[in-house]
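**Discrete fold encoding**
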Amino acid sequence: MAPIDPRAAALRDRLRGTLIAAAATPMTGSGEVDLDVVSRYFAGLVTGGATGLAVLAHTGRGPFLAPGVRASVIERAAALNVPVLVGVGGGPETSDPAEQARVAAGLGADGVLVFPSEGDRAALHEEVWQAARLPMVAFDLYTRPCPPGVLREILRHPGVAGLKTALLSDAIGCQRAIMLARESGRLAITGEDRMFGPSLLWGAEAALVGVAAAAVEVTAEVMRAFREPGLRAFEQASARLDRLAAATFTDPMEGYVQRMLWLAAAEGRIPGTHAHDPHGPGLTERERLELQAQDFGPPPARERAGTIA
């Protein structure tokens, strides 16, 4: 087990068992962000069962947003008194993940989710740590899967609190990443929207998923059922979540952000005017109508969806 900084250990322990919603950033077709809409949307995710928020991550289109908008989004999330992780990196070469981490620390974030990058990934985590001393969550993403040797090196960093795996359809890679995180004493966090239930059975101890950017109660119910004795409720909740994920995390895969925004608008979480993803692939009106016509069903014991920690 690799040594861990007390700040990273405290965040690891705080996040164990939680559902962290990878929140979208509601915006207009031209990319304008209304911060009051953002506040209501974030608050609704928490009310619906999210016990933490990840903002400006892949789902939140953080790499595309201007520094001033990023800062305001972080402030709105931090005001909700739940753990807040902020996505850093992943943008153009001119963006500075270390500076983004410094800003996040100053605005009350509890940790940063470090986007995978080209080049020396372990060195990137050290730069981010030296800049802000804010606990880090490493990120193994299907578009840039991390070689096992590099992943081991990252997980030995004292500032790394956990690892989010989002390998989409690579079950072997997901299992290996979970094992490496646990062996290093870090939190194994599932980001596997399409392998959610299995990843919990493989040892994931928390969740950070884009599928919880809308219909958050459906994901929260899986987390709750997993902690209860017996598998029947977990099986039923997982099947419901699988239907939701199959409808939203599908080709073109980058369209999932738009699909989650459409669902959030259909649920009344955000106005339709701010249910746009100008940074993703163009999807058709027919796709929107077909998605919104589907019934993913309310979870049983909806009123208990928030009690998963």
Remarks:
- The first helix runs from residue 6 to 15.
- DSSP finds twelve helices and eight strands in the chain.
